[in-house]
Amino acid sequence: MFEHLEKYAGDPIFRLGDEFHQDPRERKVNLTVGLYYDDAGRIPLLRSVQQAEARLGGELRPRPYLPIEGLPAYRSAVQELVFGAGSEAVRAGRVATIQSVGGTGALKVGADFLHAAYPDSHIWISDPGWDNHHAIFQGAGIATHTYAYYDSQGQSLRFERMLEDLRALPRHSFVLLHPCCHNPTGADLSREQWQALIPVLAAGELIPFMDMAYQGFGRGLDEDAGPVRAMADAGLTFLAANSFSKNLSFYAERCGGLSVVCGSADEAERVQGQLKAIVRRIYSNPPMHGGQVTALVMSDPELRALWEDEVAEMRARIAAVRRQAREQLEARLPGYDAGYLTEQQGMFSYTGLSAAQLHALRAEHGVYIIDSGRISVPGLNTRNIDYFTEAMAAVLRG
Ligand code: PMP
User: Fold this and answer.
1) Which of 182, 183, 249, 345 to mutate to test the pocket of ligand 1 (most atoms within 8 A of CB)?
2) What backbone torsions phi and psi does residue 232 show, to the nearest 5 degrees?
3) Which GO MF term does the entry hold, naming one (predicted)?
4) Disulfide: which of 307, 308, 329, 389 matches 338 by Cβ 3.0-4.6 Å?
5) What is this structure's pTM?
6) What ipTM describes this predicted complex?
């Protein structure tokens, strides 16, 4: 009955990760998947999470269904984290928010919502971008296109081209944007560039979808959300997805949020209802455990302060690794400009390495980097950074 179906080739990033695990070499280095590792190479179990779980674990609780839109305390925490404590839009009741199944679940619900609201609209995604954005929106019936974003040869943003591309879009087009820690390049718009972009989006009556999977990993929890808040302050109607996968090291718990900023409280109420209707027909209700832990960490002042320190620690480690990798590469390769490592921020860096160089790194040195040349920086640590920079220098020397 299903013999006609194509075989799924697997996700290229996860596939390369599997290859890494099968590689018997002891000195191998995994820079493929976007996971945060600590300096010991472990995925951290945050102390704030452990303490929240200990508190909640003290009571054995029945497991009824959560509300379709998620826990009220969780949804308020998402609004506060994404839009800020003093947000006018939140206070005015103009923001519809649901607890989502990770950031990916927020994108899926948002995609279904957009397609139902504007069935003829298409979405524009950065070039380069995250492949799964294309898959998610196409899966929801939305055609995907790209706008110019980054020149990987020149290691620079193509901001003027980006504006030009967006100015040419039909009204009510959807535009996928990363407020911070752009995946895959690590190159973000400056505050001034956001200020220039927002009026272009408004003038074109475009509908932005802000995907914030790495809040806190760039410059800070508040700073990273700055573009989302600036967009809300400018009065735009838009969607914002956020994820606790990275900043709470909570990958498998699938905790995220989807918020839609509307023009009025009445509109937000309609939107909230439509989001619920979409969730009801996809997975009905979100899971409880991760939701309760997240809500507790975000709302308890002591756990919140601890969590903010832990996010700061992860952010500082990434920045330190970036500086160290840059210094080592520039020392090993006089004349080589590794400035991109410290100019880019968040988990990822775009190395600009060619396919042949990436292949040589894998084959000769056991250094695994995905085909776009994107490295996941927290895969580096005190034990492997010298080895990595030496391998990269060897490949760059040719
Ligand atoms: N958006 C981007 C840009 C991402 O990089 C990721 C995670 N790789 C997500 C969304 C999805 O996050 P989650 O794991 O919470 O589904």
Assistant:
1) 183
2) -65, -45
3) L-tyrosine-2-oxoglutarate transaminase activity
4) 329
5) 0.96
6) 0.99
